[in-house]
UniProtKB/TrEMBL annotation:
CDD domains: RGS_RGS8. This is Regulator of G-protein signaling 8. One of its GO terms (biological process) is negative regulation of signal transduction. It comes from Onychorhynchus coronatus (Royal flycatcher). It is found in: Cell membrane; Cell projection, Dendrite; Nucleus; Perikaryon. Residues 58-174 form the RGS domain. The keyword Cell membrane applies. One of its GO terms (cellular component) is dendrite. Keywords: Cell membrane, Cell projection, Membrane, Nucleus, Signal transduction inhibitor. InterPro entries: RGS, RGS_RGS8, RGS_sf, RGS_subdom1/3, RGS_subdomain_2. SUPFAM superfamilies: Regulator of G-protein signaling, RGS. It comes from the Eukaryota. It holds the Pfam family RGS. It is a peripheral membrane protein.
Amino acid sequence: LTPLLPHIDHRNRGMRTRLGCLSHKSDSYNDFTAILPDKPNRALKRLSTEEATRWADSFDVLLSHKYGLAAFRAFLKTEFSEENLEFWLACEDFKKTRSTAKLAAKAQRIFEEFIDVQAPREVNIDFQTRELTRRNVQEPSLSCFDQAQGKVHSLMEKDSYPRFLRSKIYTDLLSQTQRRLS
């Protein structure tokens, strides 16, 4: 048994090293072209330090800003949790649906993609919320995802958002906007 221990430790150390490299690489953005929509270089020039700083005022301010949303999405991808934001955005889009004919199909698609157990991009919600949403989708209305969307919003606000504000992505973006001023 003793000869196996060094071998096991060596494998664990190798895995830790690989995971460490992955995590260091994933949270660094020197080039923001990957996260900013449209024409990234022009976008970064238009983004003021004041705007980027305001993202720290509240989670909703971040979500309402096109580039803030893009930066937050990039951050969530590094944490493998972008499905939360994608679900929230899908719900926002769903609420704008005016065609009652499209409502049921859209509701079903969102449910199957994000809410259903084993959904491809399943969000983390409790059983009661999942079941309530399942029932709501049977007779969809513009508010059928409200409770699930609220839970996911709250989760992102309390969990991901504070980490985003401390992340290298956000601090590098702020630094880059400040450097342009000097």
